[in-house]
Automatic annotation (TrEMBL), chain A:
InterPro entries: Metal_resp_DNA-bind_regulator, Tscrpt_reg_PadR_N, WH-like_DNA-bd_sf, WH_DNA-bd_sf
Organism encoding this protein: Dactylosporangium darangshiense
Domain Transcription regulator PadR N-terminal residue range list: 25-88
Record's protein name: PadR family transcriptional regulator
Domain of life: Bacteria
Length: 115, 315
């Protein structure tokens, strides 16, 4: 029997980095922290708030996101938007993702090597 | 006005952040928390419960702050860890025995020392030194880990060229033979020096080259014993596999021998003043002989440390 903890540890390892790609894709249209968290969760990208908020800052510092304060609503909100660099990175990551997917499918399709 | 849980949470987070980041992060964090609470209240939760649940989800403010500040949550990271353990092992294997041997020797020569007193002083010095070495090394590496820009860098590049090569067994055997011959020659010279000398006094008795004090106190036998132990260590190096115990003993014996030599030279207990007088040597001859011996001792110490570094790296 596979241990649940073992499975979740490996899944987490596999998914590390996918949140960045998801953020870059979602933020092609500007959005703010909590709404992004909500969209990620509904989109099947489970991420903790205490991981996401610092991550947004880091991506901004790396020039992959830009931000603007919107003070028109009841609460001042910091809106993030994917920059041109961010879009380029997202494209590269997405291509890699599909390539990996193709590689996995190819693995599955190939018969095992005869000994 | 009483502080809400959220206020306390935000304060605890901001306290751990650099001042210039605070206003921006505070506003965003407060909004995010308020949004999350509002969501839960709309779903039917009581406001206090919602606040508690949201803050619980956010987790330890220290962890959140470390994320914002991009601070590591470890003392020494994977990039520097190998260098850290190598340096620490080397220092522990060389400095600790050296200091312990020095303290033990000084205690033994102080005159009124008992065996238990010497052992206690040596053990105490070893423990104190080990704690200091471990603490300061760790502190330096923890500081390096936190230097700005440090985390972007990867570990020191490694290539197979860095693999240590083994000196050929034949070359090491020649070294061993030379060492043995040298030890026999030098020991014979020292031990015979009270009876055979180039100069003799008015009665025709030889004037020894080395200070008679060395024989009176028995230090000369200690010195020769250390030299023999050194040779034994060389043989052990040649015939036995490397082990921590062997490396430690080797370093300890070498360091002890060098320290005895330095101590004798510094306290001017090597040459016999009568011999110097009979030979017509000025005080500068004695002085420079002592200086030469101190330098020889220092070179041995440095060599021991370097050798221990190379050998522990080869592990």
């Amino acid at each position: 029997m596979l241990d649940d903890e073992l499975i979740s540890a490996h899944l987490q390892e596999l998914r590390r980095g996918t949140v960045v790609l998801a953020c870059l894709l979602i933020l092609e249209r500007p959005n703010y922290g909590y709404a992004l968290l909500d969209r990620l969760e509904r989109g099947g990208f489970a991420v903790d708030a205490n991981t996401l908020y610092p991550l947004l800052r880091r991506l901004e510092k790396q020039g992959l996101l830009t931000s603007d304060w919107n003070t028109e609503e009841s609460r001042p909100r910091k809106f993030y938007k994917t920059s041109d660099d961010g879009l380029a990175l997202a494209e590269a990551l997405r291509r890699d993702w599909h390539q990996l997917d193709g590689s996995f499918k190819a693995l599955h399709a190939q018969p095992a090597d005869p000994e | 006005m009483t502080l809400t849980l959220t206020d306390r949470y935000v304060d605890a987070t901001l306290r751990r952040l650099p001042g210039r980041q605070r206003p921006d992060i505070e506003q965003e964090l407060r909004t995010s928390i308020a949004d999350a609470i509002e969501d839960r209240v709309e779903a039917g939760a009581a406001p206090e419960d919602a606040e508690r649940a949201v803050l619980t989800d956010l987790g330890d403010p220290a962890r959140l702050a470390a994320g914002y500040a991009d601070r590591p949550l470890h003392l020494v990271g994977p990039a520097a860890y190998l260098d850290y353990t190598r340096l620490l092992t080397t220092l522990l294997a060389t400095v600790v025995p050296a200091v312990a041997a020095y303290v033990g020797l000084m205690r033994a020569l102080s005159g009124d020392a008992t065996a238990a007193g010497i052992a206690a002083a040596t053990a105490g010095a070893a423990i104190t030194t080990a704690v200091h070495v471990a603490f300061w090394t760790t502190l330096v590496f923890a500081a390096i880990e936190r230097l700005p820009g440090r985390r972007a860098r990867v570990a020191r590049p490694w290539s197979p060229a860095a693999l240590p090569d083994r000196p050929s067994r034949r070359a090491r055997y020649a070294e061993l033979v030379t060492e043995t011959l040298l030890l026999i020659l030098i020991s014979t010279f020292i031990l015979l020096s009270p009876y055979v000398s180039a100069l003799s006094d008015a009665h025709g008795d030889p004037i020894p080259l080395f200070a008679p004090w060395l024989w009176d106190s028995g230090v000369v036998y200690l010195f020769i014993a250390l030299a023999v132990a050194n040779l034994a260590v060389s043989f052990a190096k040649y015939y036995l596999r490397w082990s921590v115990a062997r490396a430690l003993t080797g370093a300890l014996v070498q360091i002890a021998g060098a320290l005895v030599l330095v101590w004798l030279a510094v306290s001017d207990r090597v040459l016999n003043p009568q011999f110097a007088a009979a030979a017509g040597w000025g005080s500068d001859v004695t002085h420079w002989t002592n200086v030469g011996l101190v330098i020889a001792g220092a070179i041995t110490l440095v060599h021991t440390v370097l050798e221990s570094v190379t050998l522990s790296r080869r592990r």
